[in-house]
């Protein structure tokens, strides 16, 4: 089945499901990219800090499709924020990947205590206008962080990539995104498997004859989120993508909503730097 697309607020669009390269070993990255594209993915999520942008680029050159057929994201790491540093960081990412432009460049974390994300955002706006990146967005931004960059520049991120899974459902942040036309993209969408044994997940999996991972990934799509699960195995990549031919019921979605605990698997954006 064809991967559904989500509209971005700059007139472009992106596939609703892709795969991420976090913790993919550098010497396996090219192979994972090729396997993912062969499985049917058309969105790859990378980052400078992952240490595998060269492998991402090699995979793009080996994938057997025109470059423009695959949506590529990468990110500016925390120690490269600021006007000049961000400009250099983006140039270095483009060189490592071996492309003239990426589809989406994100600020990886707001690092509010450092106070540089506004300058970084202004630099990404300039780089977008120069054609170095096609779209710009953020990752792990809170409502106050979003309000600041939007208020200061008038430019709304196309996307905010945040930790989101059944135990951390981010309803308030998702509502802010919806009001401002920002796509919510879920990282660690399976919550490290901590909800696999939960009653609502097990019940939906049993009804559908699917794995807990598949029903949780489908839950993300039903919420309207983009989602980027990770696997280094060809079979795992294929399983994660095989979520387009079934749906959860309203009752199942309501049951999933009861799994919220506020539990993070990663850092708190308010303090992480």
From TrEMBL:
The active site is at residue 50. It comes from the Bacteria. Signal peptide: none annotated. GO terms for molecular function: oxidoreductase activity, acting on the CH-OH group of donors, NAD or NADP as acceptor. It catalyses: hydroxyacetone + NADP(+) = methylglyoxal + NADPH + H(+). The record marks 75 as: Lowers pKa of active site Tyr. Residues 17-257 form the NADP-dependent oxidoreductase domain. It holds the Pfam family Aldo_ket_red. Keywords: NADP, Oxidoreductase. Substrate binds at residue 108. PANTHER family: 2,5-DIKETO-D-GLUCONIC ACID REDUCTASE, NADP-DEPENDENT OXIDOREDUCTASE DOMAIN-CONTAINING PROTEIN. Belongs to the aldo/keto reductase family. This is Aldo/keto reductase. It comes from Paragemmobacter kunshanensis.
């Amino acid at each position: 089945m064809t991967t559904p697309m989500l509209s971005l607020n700059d007139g472009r669009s992106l596939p609703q499901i892709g795969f991420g390269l976090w913790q993919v070993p550098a010497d396996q990255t090219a192979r994972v990219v090729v396997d993912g594209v062969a499985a049917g993915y058309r969105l790859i999520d990378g980052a400078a800090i992952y240490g595998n942008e060269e492998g991402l680029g090699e995979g793009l050159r080996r994938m057997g499709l025109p470059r423009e057929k695959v949506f590529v994201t990468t990110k500016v790491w925390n120690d490269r924020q600021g006007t000049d540093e961000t400009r250099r960081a983006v140039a270095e990412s483009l060189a490592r990947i071996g492309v003239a432009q990426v589809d989406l460049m994100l600020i990886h974390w707001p690092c509010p205590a450092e106070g540089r994300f506004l300058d970084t955002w202004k630099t990404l706006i300039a780089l977008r206008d120069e054609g170095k990146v096609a779209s710009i967005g953020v990752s792990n931004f809170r409502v106050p962080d979003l309000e600041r960059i939007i208020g200061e520049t008038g430019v709304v991120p196309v996307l905010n990539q945040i930790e989101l899974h059944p135990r951390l459902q981010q309803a308030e942040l998702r509502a802010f995104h919806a009001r401002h036309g920002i796509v919510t993209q879920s990282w660690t969408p399976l919550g490290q498997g901590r909800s696999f044994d939960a009653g609502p997940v097990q019940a939906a999996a049993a009804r559908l004859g699917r794995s807990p991972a598949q029903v949780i990934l489908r839950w993300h799509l039903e919420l309207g989120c983009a989602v980027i699960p990770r696997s280094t195995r060809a079979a795992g990549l294929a399983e994660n993508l095989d979520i387009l031919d079934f749906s959860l019921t309203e009752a199942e979605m309501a049951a999933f909503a009861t799994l919220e605990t506020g539990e993070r698997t990663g850092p708190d954006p308010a303090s992480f730097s």
